[in-house]
Write a structure and sequence with these properties.
MeTrfase_7, alpha+beta, two-stranded parallel sheet, metal ion binding, about 110 residues, magnesium, single chain, 2 strands, MeTrfase_capping
Length: about 110
């Protein structure tokens, strides 16, 4: 993990960084507990997404953001569930599905390409 300038300016950054890649110590290989939590909380996510869109008549575009995401599949589980819920609501209402922009953001030193 390379934190570069961040680690000298902000010493806590190295403690918050995730290990990229697919190795034994990577976040991806050690995120089963988080995946289980996501699975358990899925009904709450779906319910809250539906409630947010219940009073909206028509949307041309929607932005969904995850501030604090990391590498691995868990990042995409939440986003895909939100997107699926929005698309299902549009189908139920016979509305055109909006353009959905997903923004994934984390510490600059967390490399999602590794």
């Amino acid at each position: 993990m390379e934190t570069g300038e961040d680690s000298s300016k902000y010493p806590y950054v190295s403690a918050l960084c995730m290990n990229g890649g697919d190795g034994d110590k990577s976040y991806s290989a050690n995120s089963l507990i988080m995946r289980r939590v996501l699975s358990i909380t899925k009904p709450v996510l779906v319910k809250n997404t539906k409630e947010m869109f219940a009073n909206l008549d028509f949307l041309e575009s929607v932005k969904v953001a995850d501030f604090g995401c990391s590498s691995g599949q868990n990042t995409f589980l939440v986003m895909s569930e939100i997107v699926d819920t929005i698309n299902l609501l549009c189908q139920e209402r016979n509305q055109k599905q909006p353009e959905i922009e997903c923004c994934l953001n984390d510490l600059p030193s967390n490399n999602h390409r590794s």
